[in-house]
Amino acid sequence: MANQQQNMMKQLQQMQAGMAKLQEELGDVTVTGTAGGGVVTITADGHQKVTAVSIEPEALEEGAELLADLVLAAVNDALDQSREKAATHMGQLTAGLGLPPGLL
Description:
Strand content: 15-25%
Helix content: 55-70%
Low-confidence stretches: none
Order of helices and strands: HEEEHH
Number of strands: 3
Largest sheet: 3 strands, antiparallel
Mean pLDDT: 85
CATH architecture of the domain at 29-95: 2-Layer Sandwich
Strand order of the largest sheet: 1-2-3
Number of helices: 3
CATH topology of the domain at 29-95: Ybab, Chain: A
Radius of gyration: 20 Å
Distance between the termini: 25 Å
């Protein structure tokens, strides 16, 4: 029984180290969301933080309401990609632990 507990503690320590590394790696991930054929471009990192916004001049001619819709669509695109990358990284981290799906 003690050996099983030691193995579990070892796995938890490995997972903690892996989570710290994952958090660091996600900060280096860059994704780009676009809308309007690229007239609005949003860059985000793996922590779902928007790091840059680019709006082409022609987007300004369409009016504030359409511009707002384009920015919203591009932000959502970037954040969706960021979450997918984070989920992929998390899946790689937990793959060898034998945990039930959806636990983390």
